[in-house]
Amino acid sequence: MLTLGEKVRKIRSKNAGPFWITIDIFCGNKKIYKEVCKKLKNSEIINLLMISEQQLKRFEIDDLNVIKFSFPRKIIQGDIFDRDMHGAQLAVLLSEMKF
Amino acid sequence: MIPIKVLVPSGVLGLGFDLEALNNGLKNNPDIISIDGGSTDSGPYSLGSGTSKYSRAAIKAEWKSLMIAREKANVPLVIGSCGTCGTNGMVDWMENITIELAEELNQNIKIAKLYCQQEKNFIKKNFQLSKIYPLNPAPMLNDQLIEEMTNIVALAGAEQIQECINTRAEIILAGRTTDTAIISALPLMKGADPGSSWHGAKVVECGALCSTNPTSGVVMVEFDKTGFTVEPMSKNAFCTSETVAAHMLYENADPYILHEPGGYMDVTYSNYYNIDKKKVRVEGAKWHLSKQYCVKLEGAKIAGYQTSLLVLLRDKKYVENVKKWTDKLLKFLKKEINERMDIDTSEYSLEFRHIGLNSILGELEKNIRSPLEVGVLCLITSKNQLSTEIAKLINPFLLHFPLSSYEELPTFAFPFSPVHSDRGCVYEFVLNHILELDNPMDAFQIETSEV
Predict the structure, then answer these.
(1) Residue B405 pLDDT more than 90?
(2) Would you call B253 and A20 a contact, using CB atoms and an 8 Å cutoff?
(3) In what helix (H) or strand (E) does residue B41 lie, and over which residues does it extend?
(4) pLDDT band (50, 70, 90) for residue B384
(5) Chain A nearest-CA residue for B269
(6) Do the beta carbons of residue A83 and residue B360 sit within 8 Å?
(7) Which strands form B286-289's sheet, in the order they lie side by side?
(8) pLDDT of B296
(9) Residue B342 pLDDT
(10) B269 near A CB under 8 A
(11) Does residue A39 contact residue A31 with C-beta atoms inside 8 Å?
């Protein structure tokens, strides 16, 4: 079974200011984009990131074949308990998801 | 209107740019050169301490190239968010560098400084008047928290930069500004389409990141009454409709909306198309004016004094049981710290992170496997400056603590002497709020000088 990272062109995550994180899934083409849009459920993302449904924003950007997720950081950037100041390694969680 | 060309040398001063590309930019007759000098992206330390993330030498070397470029082009040079955090001290620091360079380069220039730092009493007064609103999520604000902050800045928008441009200064040194305002200010003044002025500014705020060659830095964006055109200045960089459109995703929670002082821009109905293989034309962004003029606030306070220790484990039994080992050690140490130092657990935080297991993702890690070796990073943060003393108490136990009382004392690997590293004062962001203003200049001051 493929992982989501193997299926799509690129997955990246990054701070959107100190209080939010945003994840972009670049699908690469329309066919994969439509498939990912259909199969990738918010409930899986919520479980993976341990956040509530209300916190998750989902955008499907047809023109770019991109699916984007944004959510508030549980730990504010640079807090003494923050482990990844730029939030850029979080993308790995989605990359390694079975798809 | 005559189209307005803004030359952006790179995403931030200190990161470097291609000099040949900068010269190509000058040949295209820019009306202004704009560069960002800061961000919150590196964490709260810069704002908390009021210092620059980049070295003074790196800033001076790059600023020199830009001051030479400005003189050649004979147009204003603007830097926003001086010294990473944009405090008043960092505006003065940048002025100091500018004066040194003006002497070295034998330039006579008029400087305008935009101060964006906020007095605590001014913030308290506005908080009491209910003119400060929390964004989502925001720490709970109160007078005590305001008092505890080491630095508070407001993010200037296009209006404040325009006031600086109106002074006819050749160099504008701005405190904290939105990344986009230093780029949108001039086209907005000259009658360019407002939605496109902000959209174009957002596209080029990270320099050539909107192109196929991000490290080349330099881009030119031209604004007019119906849209904007963006072109990278390096011969090895190209803009495509996809690289340009994709930049709205970057560091943006909402890919269509961007809030700025005085309103927000919506790019839902924007069209992107290549004019040629380098240039992209964009039209269709909308600007929505807000009823009240608001600016965003940023503030940081001291989170504590931090000391770290690192111990490395290679012994198979300890590597396999590292979580159990640190759980047991943590319990033991809390008791020792309380008994020997008379410090309550509420006065400090003590944390172990397992490098090799889940030190990055923590509880979110799904893929924990037993590694060959593991690093245990011990972090102590105390309210007062006791973290060093706590680290010294911990040191021998980190080296020798046994999993069970039936075994000989183990000894692990310390890679450093001294074992502990004092990280000094650490800070935290405590504001995610906006401030309502009757007049855009109410929270900002401009000073001009000639050198």
Answers:
(1) no
(2) yes
(3) none
(4) confident
(5) A63
(6) yes
(7) B257-260, B263-266, B286-289
(8) 98
(9) 95
(10) no
(11) no
Burial of B342 (0-12, 13-18, 19+ CB in 10 A): exposed
Question: Contact B253/A50, CB-based, under 8 Å?
Answer: no
pLDDT band at B225 (very low <50, low <70, confident <90, very high): very high
Q: Is B246 on the interface with A (CB under 8 A)?
A: yes
| Chain A with chain B: Cβ pairs closer than 8 A | 103
A86–B249 C-beta distance less than 8 A: no
- pLDDT one-digit tens code per residue, B260-307: 999 999 999 999 999 999 999 999 999 999 999 999 999 999 999 999
Answer yes or no: do B138 and A86 touch at CB < 8 A: no
Cβ pair A78:B429 closer than 8 A: yes
Measure A11 CA to nearest chain B CA, in Å: 12
Instruction: Say how far apart CA B271 and CA B379 lie, in whole Å.
Output: 50
Asked if the C-beta of B432 comes within 8 angstroms of chain A's C-beta atoms, the answer is yes
C-alpha closest to that of B204 among B4, B6, B63, B3: B6
Backbone conformation region of residue B90, classed left if phi is above 0, alpha if psi is from -120 to 50, else beta: alpha
Q: What is the pLDDT of residue A43?
A: 97
- pLDDT higher than threshold 90 for residue B395: yes
ipTM value, please give it.
Answer: 0.95
By C-alpha distance, which of B252, B136, B257 is closest to A55? Answer: B136
Q: Which residues share a beta bridge with B427?
A: B302
> Across residues B354-371, what is the average pLDDT?
95
Q: For residue B374, what is the DSSP state? A: E
Cα A85 versus chain centre, distance: 16
Structure tokens at B313: 């484990």
Q: Cβ B251–A78 below 8 Å, yes or no?
A: no
What is the Cα–Cα distance from B239 to A64, expressed in whole angstroms?
15
- The structure's pTM equals 0.97
Give the gap in angstroms from C-alpha A36 to the nearest C-alpha of chain B: 18
Residues of chain B in contact with residue A87, where contact means CB-CB under 8 angstroms, are: none
Q: Regarding predicted confidence, which is higher, A99 or B118?
A: B118
* E strand segments, B278-437: 280-283, 286-289, 293-313, 348-355, 374-382, 420-429, 433-437
At residue B284, φ and ψ (nearest 5 deg) are 110, -5
Q: Tell if the CB–CB gap between B249 and A80 is shorter than 8 Å.
A: no
Q: Note whether B352 contacts A: Cβ–Cβ < 8 A.
A: no
> What's the pLDDT score for residue A81?
97
**Binning pLDDT at 50, 70 and 90, where does residue A1 land?**
confident
Give, in order, the Cα–Cα distances in Å from B245 to each of A31, A61, B165, B256. Answer: 20, 10, 29, 10
Residue recorded with tokens 């505890």: B148
Helix (H, G, I), strand (E, B) or coil at B158: helix
Pairing of strands B149-154, B171-174: unpaired
Residue B350 pLDDT > 90: yes
Average pLDDT taken over every residue of chain B: 97
Question: What pLDDT score does B412 carry?
Answer: 98
Q: How far apart are CA A29 and CA B52, in angstroms?
A: 42
HEC sequence for B91-128? HHHHHHHHHHHHHHHCCCCEEEEEECECCHHHHHHHHH
